[in-house]
Amino acid sequence: AKRWINIRKSYGNFYKVPRSQTKLTMMLEQLGMRYAGRPHSGLDDARNIAGIAARMLRDGCELR
């Protein structure tokens, strides 16, 4: 991919939370979501991050 988004930074800016609260499990918990899959599995992490991104888009965030 030629472009990428720092989801932690975007999440913190959009929901107005400090960087210390932008760990994957914390972001999921704050959104009322559960971690799906095995911890530290790249594929499962990617799926969970995609869920966070989808929720942010539904909440009105413009991911850039």
Automatic annotation (TrEMBL):
Gene Ontology molecular function, alphabetical: nucleic acid binding
A single Gene Ontology CC term: nucleolus
SUPFAM superfamilies assigned: Ribonuclease H-like
PANTHER family: 3'-5' EXONUCLEASE ERI1-RELATED, 3'-5' EXORIBONUCLEASE 1-RELATED
Coiled coil regions, renumbered to chain: none
Origin species: Nothocercus julius
Record lineage: Eukaryota, Metazoa, Chordata, Craniata, Vertebrata
Superkingdom of origin organism: Eukaryota
This protein's name: ERI1 exoribonuclease
